[in-house]
Amino acid sequence: MSATIAIRIDGRDVRVAAGISVAAAIAQAGVVATRRDVAGEPRAACCGMGVCFECRVRVDGEEALGCMARVAPGMEIVTDG
Amino acid sequence: MAEISTEVLVVGAGPAGVAAAVCAERAGARALVADMQAEPGGQIWRGQWNNATNRDAARWLGALASSPAATLFGARLVALPRAGHALFDTSRGAVHVRYERAVIATGARELLLPFPGWTLPGVFGAGGLQVLAKNGWPVAGKRVVVAGSGPLLLAAADTLRARGARVALVAEQCSRGALAAFGARLARTPRKLAQAAGLFARLAGVPYRTNAWVVRVEDDGTSRRALVRVGAHERRIDCDLVAVGYGLVPNLDVAAGFGCDVAGGRVVVDGHQHTSVPGVYCAGEGTGIGGVDQALAQGEIAGYAAAGRAERAAGALARRDAAARFGALLARTFALRDELRDLAADDTLLCRCENVAFGDAAACAEAREARLMTRLGMGHCQGRVCGAAAQWLFGWNAGTPRPPFAPVRIDKLDFSAYSPSDGV
Ligand SMILES: Cc1cc2nc3c(=O)[nH]c(=O)nc-3n(C[C@H](O)[C@H](O)[C@H](O)COP(=O)(O)OP(=O)(O)OC[C@H]3O[C@@H](n4cnc5c(N)ncnc54)[C@H](O)[C@@H]3O)c2cc1C
Ligand code: FES
């Protein structure tokens, strides 16, 4: 098994494999949406490559694209879903 | 703000950018390669950094690791305040790079076309879900429909299957005849034919249909179905994830930011990959979609040329031209069918960021009117998704994003910290 690290997603402690993307960690934690559109509908990662901005979340207080950022120990991820 | 100086700045660390940086260093120039991803490899070699199994990937990523070229990852080029200066947005703050010559190797993105259900969570681009899965997105045990057009569908299905997904169907919109002609032409390029045959062999048991495309995705909160047109029939396929990509389109924003001429949706270059701007080169998908062999050959040529040693690239010229012929064949084979223009309903969103309905955009005469009247393309992605779609759907010239190329905090664009001698 690859090493796991501890992070927080929407205030919940989770352990994920080191080296995965923030977007993958969010999906693994069972969080379906990373944001809501103006009509309140859920949205989540789509392009996987930093183009669509659907996966944007807050990582340690800063806006980041979940598909581009990698998890790091102790990271605090907050979605808008 | 951190500051770095380099002779050759390479923007993008996919195959083209890696080859450019390695070759520029080989020719004696100091090179810096930057990418917004956390590691080199671009779209195709993503996740291969530590355990490259692919021969090209192992060779080139190894060459980069052992070359003196500097690297800057997790860094997105957001502004080009003036010639010789580039500004990158990183999680550690802005980085200001001074360069003498530049190689643009920013690759391509998928063409995503609107259809009812395409904004649901769990509906992705085809390469999109592939790269997400490579970076740990959970697909094991999931039933997936892969659809759209081009060889990427097979590569995506292969990755997904290797990670435990059940690929229920690969739906290719092109005709069986076009695909057969493609196969016959591939036979002239044994390496490509072997790759394709290998992919098909690994995908044995996965249904692959031509003349097939996703019409819509329905989700009632507990179950999900993709409606797929296959020839004259419509099929409902129960699934968890849907991945639809209609081929690739060059990323032009960075090249346009440098002021390079763009024609026919690609960056204009000469035989040495030199753009219309002195000292600025372009390599890889930005010059037209041609695949990894084209990216590598063009990257080598651009890297040597940017280092002032264009003659050292002689060996790559023939490979580049062969790859360009393959690119032209791809474009012919996987040309998109007109029916795809009719998938979106009037209330289907076209602009995902600003929630602009397809019908409202379609009522406009051109892109500028749509921007002003509906805010099409004015959101976070700056039209990278809907602009490319509108270009294909309506023939609009959507233009390219202008600096800053991504929504960044204003303090990252603050040049007041520079002394006047910086000339900024
Ligand atoms: C989603 C996707 C999946 C693919 N999967 C496969 C596959 O499995 N097999 C296959 O044969 N081909 C695949 N392809 C095609 C493949 O990408 C190309 O054949 C090849 O990688 C092109 O190389 P490149 O160097 O031109 O561009 P890319 O590999 O696209 O590299 C461009 C790089 O530039 C970076 N970049 C872009 N803009 C900026 C910016 N503003 N600032 C900093 N960095 C930036 C990107 O992050 C990227 O890493 C895929 C393409 C896509 C879009
Ligand atoms: S999934 Fe599109 S930007 Fe991250």
From TrEMBL, chain A:
One GO MF term on file is: iron-sulfur cluster binding
- InterPro entries for the chain: 2Fe-2S-bd_N, 2Fe-2S_ferredoxin-like_sf, 2Fe-2S_ferredoxin-type
- Coiled-coil portions: none
Location of the 2Fe-2S ferredoxin-type domain:
3-81
User: Which PROSITE patterns does UniProt cross-reference here?
Assistant: 2FE2S_FER_2
- What keywords are assigned to this protein? Oxidoreductase
User: This chain belongs to which protein, by name?
Assistant: (2Fe-2S)-binding protein
Q: Which organism is it from?
A: Tahibacter soli
Question: What phylogenetic lineage does the species belong to?
Answer: Bacteria, Pseudomonadati, Pseudomonadota, Gammaproteobacteria, Lysobacterales
TrEMBL record, chain B:
Query: Care to name a GO molecular-function term for this sequence?
Result: oxidoreductase activity
Q: Domain named FAD/NAD(P)-binding: which ranges?
A: 7-299
Q: Name the domain of life.
A: Bacteria
Alphabetized UniProt keyword annotations: Oxidoreductase
Any Pfam family hit = Pyr_redox_2
The record's section on SUPFAM superfamilies has: FAD/NAD(P)-binding domain (SSF51905)
Its protein name is FAD-dependent oxidoreductase
Source organism (scientific name): Tahibacter soli
